[in-house]
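#onboarding

Welcome to the new folks! Below is a worked example of what a typical request in this channel looks like: someone posts a single protein sequence, and someone else replies with the predicted structure as tokens. Don't worry about understanding the tokens yet, we'll cover that in week two.

Example request:
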Amino acid sequence: MGLNCGIVGLPNVGKSTIFSAVTSAPAEAANYPFCTIEPNVGIVSVPDRRLDNLSALFKPKKTVPAIVEFVDIAGLVGGASKGEGLGNKFLSHIRQVGVIAHVVRCFDDKDIIHVSNKVDPASDIETINIELALSDLETVEKRKVKTEKLLHAGKDAAKAAQAELEVLEMLGKALSDGKPARSIEFTDDQLAIVKDLQLITMKKQLYVCNVDEESAKDGNLYSKVVEEIAAKEGSAAIVVCGKLESEIAMLETQEERNEFLEMAGLEESGLVRLIHAAYNLLGLRTFFTAGEDECRAWTFHDGDKAPQAAGVIHTDFEKGFIKAEVYSYDDIMELKTEQQIKLAGKLRIEGKEYVVQDGDVMHFRFNV
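Example response:
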């Protein structure tokens, strides 16, 4: 699975505007469909107040945030699974990302063309989801043809083929009804078969309601529709005003951005919520290293053990892992110094089986 978030949606819903704001990169944006054909990729710093506070405490020479990758994928249209609107190319780009941020137009603007000539979030979502389901259905049908041939092979191969066909039948039924593969409850053995198919609709999805400036704080009737759909699917939905965020992104200092947000009546940027949501959906978490030279946020996978986290810094750290010195972010914020951490008995020595926790501050001992 890719460690990135693909931004998808119909043409002219604000995908490229949001991508440009979130990455502060000049993604091509224009008021006509299919202006974005090749996906734009942007590396985004993950805002983290914990890192800011650690830097204020240690006063390091350098502070380095965690990062997450966003991919701006061109707009899909009805018929994309059959190649409409360069659909096959766009679908292949979606297949390569880790999670999907589905941008839905939740604003009225007669000057910006809607591909269906009306703003209807429920219909827009259905269009995208059906196309993704149909694309996956084609994958499943092709796999069924190959698997059925194995039913007449040796005993073990035939048994495995039969088990796979049962899963493919389950998938085919759901996808034919326009339902995503992730809506099915699989056993662990079945899930292994499904993962091998690399289905788009197995990816976790986040809905991004692109609203007008007046609705940036509380959303609107359009965004409420999206939130209801997301809740039924077990997905999340966040409200973002792409136009507002693009204006914020043009400001040079954080102080100016904070003043702008305050004037707009917002506590934080909608893009901050988007970045955090994508980071979490990807199953990514953060540990820190802190000292006078550098305070850095490091990204690891939820469930990783100490040697794997050490390997994020350098492969030699994982190969030669001995132990990890660990304390929590909360404890250093309370006690202020590592010396006080030790005196309070809050410094832990952890071995190879330690499961790293989000917010751990770590120092690794290794020998290569």
